[in-house]
Automatic annotation (TrEMBL):
Residues 524-573 are annotated as: Disordered. It comes from Pseudogemmobacter faecipullorum. PANTHER family: ARABINOSE-BINDING PROTEIN-RELATED, POLYGALACTURONAN_RHAMNOGALACTURONAN-BINDING PROTEIN YTCQ. This is Carbohydrate ABC transporter substrate-binding protein. Residues 1-23 form the signal peptide.
Amino acid sequence: MKPGLSTTAMALALIALGAPAFADIEAAKKFLDTEIGELSSLSRAEQEAEMQWYIDAAKPYAGMEIKVVSETITTHEYESKVLAPAFTAITGIKITHDLIGEGDVVEKLQTQMQSGENIYDAYVNDSDLIGTHWRYKQARSLTEWMEGAGKDATSPTLDLKDYIGTDFTTAPDGQLYQLPDQQFANLYWFRYDWFNDAKTQADFKEKYGYDLGVPLNWSAYEDIAEFFTGRDMSYMGGPATGVYGNMDYGKKDPSLGWRYTDAWFSMAGGGDKGTPNGLPVDEWGIRVDENSRPVGSCVARGGATNDAAAVYAVTKAIEWLQKYTPPEAMGMTFGEAGPVPAQGNVAQQMFWYTTFTADMVKPGTPVMNEDGTPKWRMAPSPHGAYWSEGTKVGYQDVGSWTLMKSTPDDRAAAAWLYAQFVGSKTVDVKKSHVGLTFVRQSSINHDSFTKRAPELGGLVEFYRSPARIAWSPTGTNVPDYPKLAQLWWQNIGDAMSGAKSPQEALDALCAEQEKVMERLERAGVQGDIGPKLNEPKDPQEWLDAEGSPVAKLENEDPAPETISYDELIKSWQ
């Protein structure tokens, strides 16, 4: 072995030459020495025992070539480039872990569902599809799999209770359909250094009459956005020009839909109260009956996709994008907009995914101090005028391993071994440090994150706090995520471009969602848990009833409220 050549690299070289891969404890020990070290929630002896189980369990599948797929984020890049080759070296199962766009992942999954062709042996797809998987019955119930055909390939140290996201991947039938692999929230992001500066604070209070701080509502967010846009921040070492008080994106692209389905309406105050998602109306505005059957999306059927809270949400987003955001943002996608705050000219962003934390903490960027601490912090997003206590406050993305029934059992078992390996207690603390997308409580509580917390701008504090459970993915009201999600970006895009007013765009969106649900109802493909639409009636009857949907408020701009970040953190602790 050449000096400095890792076991993983050597295994890959041998595989390329047609030689058999390693499948023994020595390969595992090398991996533990060179990659894991002390970054594990298990002792070294426990790590070796866990790796020995994988070696033994993989023997029936040694030599198989397995293909899995996920979206391209830092966590999955680490899995693809480091953990997949390591798993191959340790077990002899050759893993190809493809990285593609999130929309492409959904498209591949949809194609496999429609054709029955085994395109991939496992998918990391969002738990947002839980309603789809539960109703179509084309994804394996992992509860049944682990007790049946997949029993011998299920790790005795899997410890499902240690996972923080399984509530989101469990359907109303009580079955677990997906295993969380990475999890991140959408939170408020802001320049802590700017907000805490005495001159900045004095100037803000003189202009608005209250203290600059973390905004608790959209009224305060809007004031702060206005205050910083165009402000000369050179007295703090920031830009003299080109400063903006908001960051967002507006390109007519699939990711524009995520901006809204990922709980933007509920942050405005749309949907009903309750966790993990409001019932009977969720943050998509889809109403279900007592049997979880979708019954409407438009207000006339009891839905809320086009009610006053939804219109307010879209109207504010467009207004802020036009007034307080870099002009180029209108043509950006999710992936292009995410890293922009790290460039140092944005004061705040209400809807910022924590998956970008890994890029935001890179040394030498304008938003990092020389001592390795950030100039920024993250906090709960402010809520809109229609919001009240108990309404959903934010979204968590839970990218989760999904096994399709169209995948042969042996291939599913080999892929299942890999899915467990990359989230195993041996590996997960290190993976969490790389991608900062926590899925295990034991990793969140690891001492290494206590030490690193000051460098991560509130991420660790958030995930250790009881506040975390209020952030949740799309729930089970959505009967067919692939079909319905594509309607969002197309219709919201019409509002963004000015082709339609927000009300017109949302009227069209809810009507199109109901057409899809009508087709599902007629086809009967989802059985007695599929859509069964209400008859339309006078919308006012629904607006007069308690809960969602809601009528337009006389005042959509209540008194602004802020809180000191340091006070907020104390409340978490």
